[in-house]
Amino acid sequence: MTQHESRMVRHPLVFRRLQVREVIDLTPHMRRIIVAGPELEGFHSSAPDDHIKVFFPNPAGEYITPTPGPDGPVFPEGKTPSPARDYTPRHYDPVAGTLAIDFVIHGDGPASNWAEQARAGDAFAFGGPRGSFVAADDFEHYVLIGDETALPAISRWLEEMPAGKKATALIEIPEEADRQELSTRADASITWLPRNGGDAASSQLLEEALAGLAPQGDTFWWIACESARARRMRISLAEQRNVPKDWIRATGYWKATP
Predict the structure, then answer these.
(1) Which residues of 16-54 are buried (b: 16+ CB within 10 A; e: fewer)?
(2) How would DSSP label each residue in 78-124?
(3) Under a CB-based contact definition with an 8 Å cutoff, are residues 120 and 34 in contact?
(4) Is pLDDT of 7 > 50?
(5) What is the mean pLDDT of residues 71-85?
(6) Following DSSP, what letter does each residue of 117-132 receive, concatenated?
(7) What is the pLDDT of residues 131-151, one digit of tens each?
């Protein structure tokens, strides 16, 4: 087997209709929505940074979701498709038949607005995940870098790491009150970087913290935040530190508007 061999795992695309079972405010800017229903049976998520496509009511208040077609998802004709956003499956409990998704509350937008108003019994619709990136488990160190949108995935990374693994997490959050208690069996160092009113798109907190990192041994670098920032950090690692490109996974979880 090749050393440090990460892989993609594909899943059949399934769309599900569920109901909100519980709403939990985790921090001032993070709300957990727990959903359940018979259609959740068979759900599977193989990796901490998996994403599902969550659908929200269209302007008419309807959930207009697609069905799988030979050339991709197909929406019904004559209806306005529901807006959709990508979210991390934070925790799936097959015994309880529940799925938890953590939403960042950030102001206007279909996802944030829906999450702020969500109540038990509300409808919930999503599709996926379509695939999972399974990182190689033989790195000596794992560095996880992200803003609050990446916190659900980072939390899951740390929870699922076995004892003895070395991990470093750099987590940018809106304010001090947005810290969360994170559980892990790994040998992990967690640094919280509150912006305290700073702009999330132009912040340099993650970049400055990254510049001061020098982990020992072969290291896997996972980055998720605003798209341009994630790209710049990936380029910095690859071109300035000569980190092999397949040892880096950098993803734009959102894009700043001009």
Answers:
(1) bbbebbebeebbebbbbbbbbbeebeebebebbbbbbbb
(2) TSPPPPEEEE---EEETTTTEEEEEEE--SSSHHHHHHHH--TT-EE
(3) no
(4) yes
(5) 91
(6) H--TT-EEEEE---EE
(7) 999 999 999 999 999 999 999
